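ok so I'm stuck.
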Amino acid sequence: MMKMEKNKPYLAIILIQSIYAGMYLVSKAAFDVGMNTFIFVFYRQAAATLFLLPIAAFFEWRKGPPLSFTTLCKIFMLTLFGITSTLNIYGVALVYTSATLAAATSNCLPVITFFIAVLLRMENVKLRTGPGLAKAAGIALCTAGALTMAFYKGPHLKLFLHHNHLFGHYSQQQQQHQHHDLYGPSTNTWIKGVFLMLLCTTLWGFWLVLQARVIECYPSKLLFTTLQCFLSSIQSFIIAIALERDSSQWKLGWNIKLFAVAYCGIVVTGVAFYVIAWVVEKKGPVFVAMSTPLALIITIFCSAFLLGEMISFGSVLGGILLVGGLYSVLWGKSEEQKMNEVEKERLESKEEMSTKSPPTLLV
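replied:
not stuck anymore, here's the structure
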């Protein structure tokens, strides 16, 4: 029983990364059958709001803090740039690229977040120490990984070229299109997609950093998340209705489109967010961050077998560099925290020694 209790965080982290891998796959599958990306974001956020609203109302409505107009404006702007813009850019980038690339660039998030925190002077880098050099090297590796994925494709890995897959009714055309992309002018589309993916990851990093400041004004996490989903639904609806007037695009049938909306809105936003909070409480945020390459591995195999995507050597090489950069930054951060704790203990011990009164001399 004790062993099972000890293994729960590891099983939970596998579940989390599997959910995120599923998000990349079902989103890509929905876009490949023609779903409008902006409408998808609206439906996804609306589904998340409908799922979270009764839960938030039941558990935190009465004990939630009052919401001032200034705080509401802060949350609105944070939602606009951190969630609505991120998800809409992510949708366009995913159409231009692949599920594998989306999973790979997610490994940049801890590094980009750290880099933003350095720029905002919330973190520091001491280049004369080992941990400081490791963090700088991690940023360099992530940059190299992103550039590799953007500008180098290389040969396709034949191990992943399968034609018997789940979405075979449209993937054959997709494979032909991808083959054309490799040699034709649409290589530029791939490069645009890579940089759009990095842009949305950067915006997400800003959201993570600035959210910590905004949540101080409104500390009820569940109500805060629900409010962001609700505001994002309104913002996403305005964007979608402005860019897509064809009523047929707004219809959802019993197909992959509906499944993708329900999965991303309920499973990702509802289940995954809760499980992440539980794992962070048990093992800490570094444990969650170190598991992100697992989603990349799952996505690589599943996108090949289920979506029929052709995996290029450049994508794999870039992904390895991104993962290397991630672990380099995390190691540097972990070692720096240990050094700070040792230094703090040394100073506290020195302070205790200095405050002790000298022994009285008996004459």
